[in-house]
Amino acid sequence: MEQTTVKIGIVGGTGYTGVELLRILANHNQAQVVAITSRSESGVKVADMYPNLRGIYDLAFSEPTVEVLQACDVVFFATPHGVAMSMAHELTAAGVKVIDLAADFRINDLAVWSKWYGLEHTCEDLMPQVAYGLPEVFREQVKQANIIANPGCYPTSILLALKPLIDHDLIDVSDIVADGKSGVSGAGRGANVAMLGAEMSESFKAYGVAGHRHLPEMQDKLMQMAEQNIGLTFVPHLVPMIRGMESSVYANLKTDMGQDQLQTLFEECYADETFVDVMPAGSLPETRMVKGSNMCRMAVYRPPGSNKVVVTSVIDNLVKGAAGQAVQNMNILFGLPENSGLNQVALLP
Amino acid sequence: MEQTTVKIGIVGGTGYTGVELLRILANHNQAQVVAITSRSESGVKVADMYPNLRGIYDLAFSEPTVEVLQACDVVFFATPHGVAMSMAHELTAAGVKVIDLAADFRINDLAVWSKWYGLEHTCEDLMPQVAYGLPEVFREQVKQANIIANPGCYPTSILLALKPLIDHDLIDVSDIVADGKSGVSGAGRGANVAMLGAEMSESFKAYGVAGHRHLPEMQDKLMQMAEQNIGLTFVPHLVPMIRGMESSVYANLKTDMGQDQLQTLFEECYADETFVDVMPAGSLPETRMVKGSNMCRMAVYRPPGSNKVVVTSVIDNLVKGAAGQAVQNMNILFGLPENSGLNQVALLP
Amino acid sequence: MEQTTVKIGIVGGTGYTGVELLRILANHNQAQVVAITSRSESGVKVADMYPNLRGIYDLAFSEPTVEVLQACDVVFFATPHGVAMSMAHELTAAGVKVIDLAADFRINDLAVWSKWYGLEHTCEDLMPQVAYGLPEVFREQVKQANIIANPGCYPTSILLALKPLIDHDLIDVSDIVADGKSGVSGAGRGANVAMLGAEMSESFKAYGVAGHRHLPEMQDKLMQMAEQNIGLTFVPHLVPMIRGMESSVYANLKTDMGQDQLQTLFEECYADETFVDVMPAGSLPETRMVKGSNMCRMAVYRPPGSNKVVVTSVIDNLVKGAAGQAVQNMNILFGLPENSGLNQVALLP
Amino acid sequence: MEQTTVKIGIVGGTGYTGVELLRILANHNQAQVVAITSRSESGVKVADMYPNLRGIYDLAFSEPTVEVLQACDVVFFATPHGVAMSMAHELTAAGVKVIDLAADFRINDLAVWSKWYGLEHTCEDLMPQVAYGLPEVFREQVKQANIIANPGCYPTSILLALKPLIDHDLIDVSDIVADGKSGVSGAGRGANVAMLGAEMSESFKAYGVAGHRHLPEMQDKLMQMAEQNIGLTFVPHLVPMIRGMESSVYANLKTDMGQDQLQTLFEECYADETFVDVMPAGSLPETRMVKGSNMCRMAVYRPPGSNKVVVTSVIDNLVKGAAGQAVQNMNILFGLPENSGLNQVALLP
């Protein structure tokens, strides 16, 4: 039996999501990375920048040219926002699928997008071809899209935590609190004093007091999921570790439900999902349980003496929160098994 | 001018709060540790167990006897719960002040206490002599007490965050969410697989799903502060770092107030406090800003588009959250300057 | 084409090398774990103890019985020393291959073994069937053995660093210094105060002052490799990280050789090895370049102004230093491709 | 009794040694920081850059002018190399003592200095006024100097480890190996990708393959101490922690000496030193035993079966390895108790 091989281009592969795509795709048996581009590192071998890839990739970074990318089946953008938008017309016109790991296509309301990202949006005409690549919520749209807006890491962990509650209309969506915590790889590989080991180790802090860009993204998707206005308070925090993200989500139940009912409801909601694991009642997920893997593990908890429900969910911010989910979306787009290349077992300890 | 020297006994000095008391008291010029007890380590020099104290203390652990402790002016209990309770009658009868770093005297409602701690309370008669040792809230009671219930670490960080809002009756106290995060030293020095470096490093998790004992402690004190019933949802989390605690507290404002008004209100509330620092608007505290020091630093934040107020506060769980606050209480009890021995500057980086 | 499937038993699977074997074997397409034993955890599902395995293994720990293990093709011992020795006769008699990740068969001189391990050796008769499972040095012996003594982590990193120098008789083998550094997972999963996160984080130390058991193991193998007496000074150190091992090895060149000659010699020595990577001149390996992978990366360095040669090598102590190398040995024993199941790319960042 | 107050200027106070000087001097009762300069941060309050100093210093960074600095008793240079050299003439001419925490005056052989630092040395005439500020070796010179070359961190830990052996002419000084390990704060506060938390956490590596500048510094001082040529191989390593430095030093004994003799010799050598602690035989120092303190703790070890002696020593690279030793030198220069301001107990855990 002959197998399809998807030809892949990666734009902007020098950051952490770029190297993570390469790590994951190295064990994908129906994918071939044919080009990885970087203006600043053109000519440098990827294995010289990322020695974990020595012996695995002989590829060098190249200039991002339309010709090279148009010869691919799919192009991943592991770039700052604005870049995917600038090349999306040419690529989709050539029949190339686009998976943007940045934010260019994440928010349907382009006025909101422009306000938070400080740019004019240049692809309004392409928005009908876009799907928000959270397969557990929007799989059918993903199948038919030409452009995938790969979700932010916080939205991935928080929307998955809320989906069972919203699907069943169980909570007051006007008052949701999401307290998110991320490892430092989420801040990227840029030289930044605040992210030095001597600054972030052995310390914990909230950040983003002026507003985090994942807030409007979540508001946009929650409104779509709930089909009504929602109220979300979101505070992100920085954890002294490399990888991992935990979100604790608090909401008020509209009608009383016990722990057992909630547990069953969550388990049923995700029974058919490969990459969402509802932990047994009484246990709580830890980020190390998903380190290096594409899993989202979660637990639902019903504190006694109130009408609150608490959901805690964990992902690896670079995998299910970025590169792994991008590959999952690629698999869906090309009709491959959804878990191809995504069988990594979390590294524990 | 002659100076008082307070003679100090420490019961159960082998844990982290014990060594932290010794570290702090080493630079207190009106305090002398005359006895430090441990059944299991009797005869061992404290500096052999804690080599950071080599050359500073020549003291050895001794058996905890009433005679030795009755010769002290004050006895700190750095023990599991239940121990202070068992010696409090004899010590207070001899005029010795008791500062309990465990939980024996933290909850006024002794039925609630017994439920959470699984013990009969044997000191009901002494409760009128007890003050909850959070000086910024209960300083006058501390001054006149014979027994200090030194607060838990989470309650310290969360009650201080809420005090300005409750004092001015600004929030709906029936629906408060406190998302707490602690370094691993809070779990103590017991051999425990889950606290091994290979288990807790590079991971983040919620814990205490079955209910954390600091919840009833906070409920008890918040009701006292608010003079009404309160509703508190509290989820503690474990951070891969040794020291430090951050709490993010979420509440709904009853009447609208802007960022500036809240900022002013918080600054005024703590203007006279040595150990509470309200950070400037727009900044956020980090736990490293208080590492090794007795400070609590906090920020108040008013997210746009809702009626929420968010307060984030940080302490060193072993200092303001334990041993430092205990020394602060001792200073108040004996009429010493409240900051004696507590001038450590946080270790940064 | 039909493929062999190797039936595998794992004795003592509750420790870190046990879970690491399971992680690696999960992606080995010619291996099936049919039994994993633990006296203390019998009946517990492995995924309940190691939640990274949820959804991957449905297996439960079972009592270690000879019947079950004799039905396997190979049995891995991820146990304390002494256990493999107690079952080796029965298993090898039944034609089952034994791979011992502990130390029972690592030292040919059984008097030395007994001195360091404090036990009588009960398998002297089996020693002719044993190979020391460092394939890059002893591959031919491994192919024909029935029992594999899987090397210690320090010996793996240090012997590989020295092999090119010894093969070419370049150094004075009577005066070698090996300064080793290990992450804390090397200490295992036992509850041990010194390995608590609050104790080992943010600290670095030498240990093993009374002598580390990997010293006689290395002496034994170095003598075999050099065919003469050797002198080795070995000091192990503990690094505040979970995984990873670095060794810096210092020796005196007998005849002068430049950096370029040494570089070429090292590259040639390992040109055909899948799991040893000689880094380019001027670069130095970092443990993160092998995290989760079976690679050993090394660099050779010739400091000016002396006759010293320095080799630094890195491995993941749980993979090439334990479970990965054990699977590599299994592959050799059963004629499978040596890298089957061992294509994990190091997790970076 | 009236007390002297030393008026202090700090040039280049924005780095880690700058903030560490401020932390230490905050508890020095005979010192007053009157100026702290920074071109780039002029006008910024030090507490805004280093929030651990909030409430302790009201001082702002100022432009470095000769007038301001000439009004000081002593000026610390916490700058890159080359800066102290450029101001030393003016300051010493005005009777101001200079303590350079950088390398300008560390190497007596100025040709060697120029080769390693790539600059012309402009203060040859001042070299007779310079002392190398390692008080335990060169205290008498320090007392009479006008300029202190504050030692590098590696040299501090390694020279102190070797002093007893060299003083008694016990080792072959032509073949010394020093394997050094440093926390990341040693790399300073500059934005540097390699020092990002996501890069250096959970990893260990050797570095400085092209030669570390502390090597010629140590060679220079060891020759002075040994009064003969010496041979030193030095490989520095980076440890994933903020503070702390450990050095393991290996040498060959010229005549056999047992563990006990060596232990006695080390203890006697440092019996009168406040800041050097020889640990008991059989114990080993850990960097956490000196975190935040000015202590150097060490152990001497005699491996059986060879003529090697091993010394392991630990310091806090920012305290005894930089700012603390600088204050110790200041105390000596001004006739103050050598431990003034240096009574911090190491922060453990």
TrEMBL record, chains A, B, C, D:
Domain of life of the source: Bacteria
UniProt-listed Enzyme Commission number(s): 1.2.1.38
Catalytic activity: N-acetyl-L-glutamate 5-semialdehyde + phosphate + NADP(+) = N-acetyl-L-glutamyl 5-phosphate + NADPH + H(+)
UniProt record, GO biological process: L-arginine biosynthetic process
Subcellular location, principal: cytoplasm
Active site: 153
Similarity comment text for this entry: Belongs to the NAGSA dehydrogenase family. Type 1 subfamily.
Purpose of the protein: Catalyzes the NADPH-dependent reduction of N-acetyl-5-glutamyl phosphate to yield N-acetyl-L-glutamate 5-semialdehyde.
Listed name of the protein: N-acetyl-gamma-glutamyl-phosphate reductase
Lineage: Bacteria, Pseudomonadati, Pseudomonadota, Gammaproteobacteria, Thiotrichales
Encoding gene, per UniProt annotation: argC
